[in-house]
Amino acid sequence: MIGEFTIRPLSADDADAVAGLNNQLGYPCSASDLLPRIEQLLHATERTAFAAILDGRLVGWIDVAIERHLQSCDMAVLGGLVVEEDFRGRGIGRRLCQAAEDWAQNHGLFIVRVRSQAKRQDAHRFYQRDGYQLVKTSAVFEKSLQ
After folding, report:
1. Is 54 helix (H, G, I), strand (E, B) or coil?
2. What contacts 35, CB < 8 A, 6 or more positions away?
3. Which pLDDT value is given to residue 17?
4. Helices of type H across the chain
5. pLDDT value at position 71?
6. Which of 55, 73, 97, 129 is most deeply packed, by most CB within 10 A?
């Protein structure tokens, strides 16, 4: 049985735990790689992140940012969401999404978008259960500038 968990803003002290969860998500990095990203996020006005805490331990995180483009209205975009494998299916992801959605509404936004890799079928089912609708599929291209 899961105890009570809380949602709070992510802090620089969370870098080690976030790095561990990133590894579960398939994005390995070290706490030292993450610390500058977290510190930058803490000073941003159009981005934030939340942590799920259970028994004093970070077991999930979500980040959200305002995305602005000429061709579409401003919206919030979930950049990442992960809940520790042993705690999935217990409402933590839903509460993290709710924190991000509340943040978006407080910033005058009425759409929240999330992009999810085609292979993450469990994540797709999670988002659809949570009221998100598949609106398009895309290919992702990137170019290294190094």
Report:
1. strand
2. 12, 15
3. 96
4. 15-25, 31-42, 92-106, 121-129
5. 94
6. 97
This prediction has a pTM of 0.90
Question: Can you give the pLDDT at residue 2?
Answer: 53
- Residue 34, helix vs strand vs coil: helix
Contact 97, 81 (CB under 8 A): yes
pLDDT at 1: 45
How far apart (Å, rounded) are the C-alpha atoms in residues 134 and 18? 28
- The backbone torsions φ and ψ at residue 94, rounded to the nearest 5 degrees and listed phi first, read -60, -45
pLDDT along the chain (146 residues), means of 10: 82 96 89 94 95 95 97 95 92 96 97 89 88 89 91
- Cα separation, 5 vs 90, whole angstroms: 10
Whole-angstrom distance, CA of residue 127 vs CA of residue 31: 28
Span 5-129 CATH architecture? 3-Layer(aba) Sandwich (3.40)
CA separation (Å) from 135 to 114, 115, 132, 138? 10, 10, 9, 10
How far apart CA 139 and CA 52 sit, in angstroms, is 31
Residue 120 is predicted with a pLDDT of: 86
